[in-house]
Write a structure and sequence with these properties.
Layout: E1 6-7, E2 10-16, E3 31-35, E4 43-44, E5 47-48, E6 53-62, E7 70-74, E8 80-85, E9 88-93, E10 110-113, E11 120-129, E12 142-145, H1 146-180, H2 185-189
Antiparallel strand pairs: 1-12, 2-3, 2-6, 4-5, 6-11, 7-10, 7-12, 8-9, 8-11
């Protein structure tokens, strides 16, 4: 992971309808499922899961000796999550809960530094969705050099801002053509 970004896609242990904390592990009733995969595409006991609900995912990652300066890129999920690494809460978006009243959705991907000196990462990811037609994870988590991953996220954000500015300027241009022209409605609609 120090030389390249490593995806954490694959088989994760999933606990459906359970929001486990690090103190609850090891737990009973986990099922190996493909990660990332939306809940409506995930089967447990031959049944597809609904889009609403909550789950906990667990994965153990073995790191090469002497790994330093690593970061984790956590994408957004449908629609709230808490991520524990080695028993400590490192990241949260929204408030995962067991009902629509106790769940607060929030969409934001983040990149953050992982603890130094660890040779093993125990990841526990709680996800809850009661506010969207899709539920669960749909993008890969990745591990790599923290500085490089953070710079990549900043470049993506800068490109989004440039594109938004270009669209805004184009809109203002056509609005100006409408105002200073012959009030052609096609210009206003464009």
């Amino acid at each position: 992971p120090n030389q390249q970004v490593v995806s954490l896609e694959g088989k994760w242990n999933m606990y459906w309808q359970q929001l486990l904390s690090p103190a609850d592990l090891p737990a009973e009733g986990g099922v190996l499922v493909d990660f990332p995969k939306k809940w409506t595409s995930t089967q447990i006991d031959g049944q597809y899961l609904p889009a609403t609900g909550y789950a906990s995912y667990e994965l153990r990652v073995l790191l090469p000796p002497g790994s330093k300066g690593l970061g984790l890129n956590m994408p957004d999920v449908y629609t709230s999550y808490r991520l524990y690494v080695n028993g400590k809460l490192l990241q949260a978006n929204g408030e995962p809960g067991t009902s629509a009243e106790t769940t607060k959705p929030y969409w934001l991907g983040r990149t953050f530094a992982l603890p130094e000196g660890a040779d093993t990462l125990h990841l526990l990811l709680q996800i809850a969705n009661f506010h969207h037609s899709k539920g669960g994870p749909y993008k890969n988590l990745t591990i790599g050099n923290y500085t490089e991953m953070l710079n990549e996220r900043k470049r993506d954000s800068a490109l989004d801002l440039v594109m938004s500015g270009a669209l805004l300027m184009g809109g203002l241009f056509f609005f100006g053509l409408y105002l200073f022209g012959k009030y052609d409605k096609a210009m206003l609609f464009f």
